[in-house]
Amino acid sequence: MDQLPKCGANHVALTPLTFLKRANSVYATRTSIIYENTRFTWSQTYQRCRRLASSLLSLNIHKNNVVSVLAPNIPAMYEMHFAVPMAGAVLNTLNARLDAKNVATLLRHSEAKVFFVDYQYVPVAREALRLLMAHSQQNPSLIPLVIVIDDIDSPTGVRLGELEYEQLIQMGDPKFVPAEIQDEWDPISLNYTSGTTSEPKGVVYSHRGAYLSTLSLVLGWQMGVEPVYLWSLPMFHCNGWTFTWGVAARGGTNVCIRNTTAYDIYRNIAAHKVTHLCCAPIIFNILIEAKPHERHEITSPVQVLTGGAPPPASLLGKMEFLGFHVTHAYGLTEATGPALVCEWQAKWNSLPRDSQARLKARQGISILTLADVDVKNIESMESVPHDGKTMGEIVLRGSSIMKGYLKDPEATSKAFKDGWFITGDVGVIHTDGYLEIKDRSKDVIISGGENISSVELESVLYGHPRVLEAAVVAMPHTRWGESPCAFLAVRENECGVKDDVTEADIIAYCRKNLPHFMVPKKVEFVAQLPKTSTGKIQKFQLRALAKTFQVTETKSTEVNNQVTPDHDHHILALSRL
Ligand code: ADP
Q: Whose CA is closest to 427, among 363, 513, 489?
């Protein structure tokens, strides 16, 4: 054995780019992309990507240069997931809801050489470039080349420079053969964290990590050949949890949509017989609450992969009732999207529906290609017992974990300890080895020395028939240090009235369903909760508001809610959302 070379002719770098080449050779005539009236086949997609890659090279794009994109889920966004790395460059998909200042900051930080902008985002991009120019002291080498992506179905003619995306495709060489990836650890994409807990950081994925994650998710979700995949999850979010590459791996059809509305989701499911979609749990509410004219009946089950935030067990049941079959995953930008999947076991099929929903609400077990997942005491790095009770930090190891944060060695080294990536999430491991998240470490509420999981409390609140959205954060408390404060958006009753639900109703409901120390000491009703573009509730905003509440205890069970002057200002800000 020892005489054989460590790796010889069999050494080929792992990269998801091979999925496109394979789709072209075996699924050439199958539909690759549908976007309103536009259709492409896999052979056309392959050719368009080769053309685009060759055009990028002729624009002087070099290995490891960053190419940024600000666009919704349109065909061009999909194509760039292959074309940009085929040119040796690194794809940076920007969050389409960022404002000009943030876009400018990320363009500057990433040193993007080319900036693709969908025609709808031209005003934001124009302002971002103005800010970038001002900041770069008019140094043109720091300003990316801008290319507008016009609507492929009905071109608008909007421009922000000389070139348009389709022109670049036409100019490109259809026979271009991309250089083979030599090192699978080379960067393939750069994804900025959404900044729920801190400033956005630039997470760098490798070809190897992206390849392995894609395979894991295709397997973990049991995605067979020829799926019809609806793009309800933004492609800018962790490269669409790797399904940008994954749909090519299965020779599937990508159904692109510009807007994630109930109408567009139901309409496209019905029109194209969608079999799979991914979304944050927040989309469940959009689908469940859709008005009759927005709905289409789901005639065969649609597989839904959800994650990014805890899906309340009560919503899981409602989704299944509508015809969606939900699989639950957990992950984060730094782990190339999902790192755990709640793999379903056949023996659970015979359990009552609510027990099934509770099992499914757990975050699950490691995806196949991750080396290890654990929950540890972060000081001693000792694993917690598998008792479903002892909390610790969720830690991950394996090739799908990011290479590091771009230009931030300090944050990169802080993110790892003893070879483990520290997620910043707090969880438990159940006796069957399934992991359940209890909170982000920053969100745990410590009341009188007792840890209260906001996730647990929220899942009870979602069980209340009138609760539409719930978020619980810590609020200062004179006696307990911190106590839970619940922010709720409620749904209307049959008469279209919302304000008949009171704080006392909610507190009484919680007292029935929770240990008393966990019951929120204050309930605040808002029109809707503040969210990031990826559907995460922005708890830092709610925490800031809760800090203005001063709760003092009078008797053991009664509280006085006093409010400081800042409070009205914050409530006003929230009601404008
Ligand atoms: P950001 O950290 O900037 O919000 P991410 O998209 O990387 O951006 O968010 C990852 C975080 O989302 C995880 O650390 C975790 O707190 C939360 N999360 C992801 N999936 C789940 C899930 N299935 N259940 C509960 N929380 C989740």
A: 363
Helix 353-360 to helix 313-322 angle (10° resolution) is 110
Judge if the beta carbon of residue 193 lies within 6 A of ligand 1: yes
Neighbour-count burial of 58, counting CB atoms closer than 10 A to its CB (0-12 exposed, 13-18 middle, 19+ buried): middle
**Helices 42-58 & 75-86 angle (0-180, nearest 10):** 60
Residue 312 in contact with ligand 1 by CB distance below 6 A: no
Q: Quickly count: other Cβ atoms within 10 Å of residue 128's Cβ.
A: 26
Please give the helix or strand (H or E) that residue 504 lies within, else none: helix 503-513
HEC string for 20-45 = HHHHHHHCCCCEEEEECCEEEEHHHH
Cα 455 to middle of ligand 1, angstroms: 12
Cα of 332 vs centre of ligand 1, distance in Å, is 5
Establish whether residue 186 lines the binding site of ligand 1, counting it when its CB lies within 6 angstroms of any ligand atom: no
Query: Residue 329 in 3-state DSSP?
Result: strand
Bridge partners of 551, per DSSP, are 477, 561
The per-residue pLDDT string of the chain (577 residues; one tens digit each, 9 = 90 and over) reads 888 877 777 889 999 999 999 999 999 999 999 999 999 999 999 999 999 999 999 999 999 999 999 999 999 999 999 999 999 999 999 999 888 998 999 999 999 999 999 999 999 999 999 999 988 776 777 899 999 999 998 899 888 888 899 999 999 999 999 999 999 999 999 999 875 555 679 999 999 999 999 999 999 999 999 999 999 999 999 999 999 999 999 999 999 999 999 999 999 999 999 999 999 988 999 999 999 999 999 999 999 999 988 888 888 889 999 999 999 999 999 999 999 999 999 999 999 988 998 999 999 999 999 999 999 999 999 999 999 999 999 999 999 999 999 999 999 999 999 999 999 999 999 999 999 999 888 888 988 777 888 988 998 999 999 999 999 999 988 888 889 999 999 998 888 888 899 999 999 999 999 888 899 999 999 999 998 767 788 888 999 999 888 666 554 444 444 444 444 444 444 443 4
3-state secondary structure 270-302: HHHCCCEEEECCHHHHHHHCCCHHHCCCCCCCE
The residue extents of the domains of the chain are 447-576
User: Per CATH, the architecture of 447-576 is what?
Assistant: 2-Layer Sandwich (3.30)
User: Is the entire prediction scored with pTM above 0.85?
Assistant: yes
Distance 311 CA to ligand 1 centre (A): 11
Quick check: 43 and 16 in contact, CB under 8 A? no
